TrEMBL record:
Organism, as annotated: Thalictrum thalictroides
One cellular component term from this protein's GO annotations in UniProt: membrane
Protein name: Ankyrin repeat family protein
PANTHER family linked to this entry: ANKYRIN REPEAT-CONTAINING PROTEIN NPR4-LIKE ISOFORM X1 (PTHR24177:SF365), CASKIN (PTHR24177)
Amino acid sequence: MLMWYVISTRKLIQTSSVRPDTGKDGATLLTQLINSNLFDIASDLLRKLPKLAITDDNDGRNVVSVLAKKPSAFPSGRRNELWQQYKSIHLGIEIRKTKSEMHALEVLEIVSTQVSQMEVKQLKEAGIFQAVLDATKFGIVEFVYKLMTYNRHMENCKDKDGKSTFLYAIMYRQEKVFNLIQDMRNKKTPFSYIGKEDGNNTLHQAALLNSFSRIERISGVHLQMQRELHWFQEVEKLVPPKFKDELNHQGDLVATLTESLIGLKLAFDPEGEQFHAVHPSTDPTKKAYLNWDLRYKIIERIARGMLYLREDSFEAKLFIMTSKPEMYFIGWGDECQNCRLQTGEALWS
């Protein structure tokens, strides 16, 4: 691989195709190196020809757009991240970056320097805005921090629908990016967004579980429900109060979407020995609107779901959460029917 790189680099430097403004061959070599996790070689080439960082390759990609979709290249993308944090905080063990991570950060530093002088039009045309949004989606906090620090225009980073980096962090439950942007933005100003296509405001987006979200990958329905509720409550603190009572274009209240997403909030009894499915809303008006007064004991946990027994009868219901937040499969006896939870009430098909 090293010999191939040396030969390729010498050949490229001798040709006009590697010039920073038109070097598609050089850019293609770079994106291939990054896709192959050869960050040390990519870093070496970028130090020689730094403007290749923002040059499109033969497939219309550049280093920035490719790097934004490589969460595993950075410390924030480690699979055992929680264990690493525990060792660092509780055991006092210093967590060192791997050589590959250090080289990836070197590539990011060169990329950020090249992006630093670009204006809004250039950032859009080069796909830098989209790259930052992609990095937010993947939770690459190092990438988002560097580019937002190096270029002041990144605060205007939005997709074609007007969704900002902060909203992406909310949608995809990327708490590290969320906290980063919270520290960088003016906290005195409420965060507001209303989608042109669907009419969803910020709270609607927080209530909709995206299958790509970080919380979706948490095992255990009980824990997942708790994290979803906590996330929603954190976002609720940032937005204007009126958002809670606004309808989207489908006529859904935020409370309705929250119920459809989470299904039931679980609570322990005082002794902590039993679970009960309880209504998450304490607002009497919303509770009446959602029409969810039946309570069930949890008698058994199953994969991605719960088995409930109604308190005043021997009826049992099986709730299994699927990848689509609005759909649940409910088994009744030996039957299994599709059921859609609407306004908090099970409507049998």
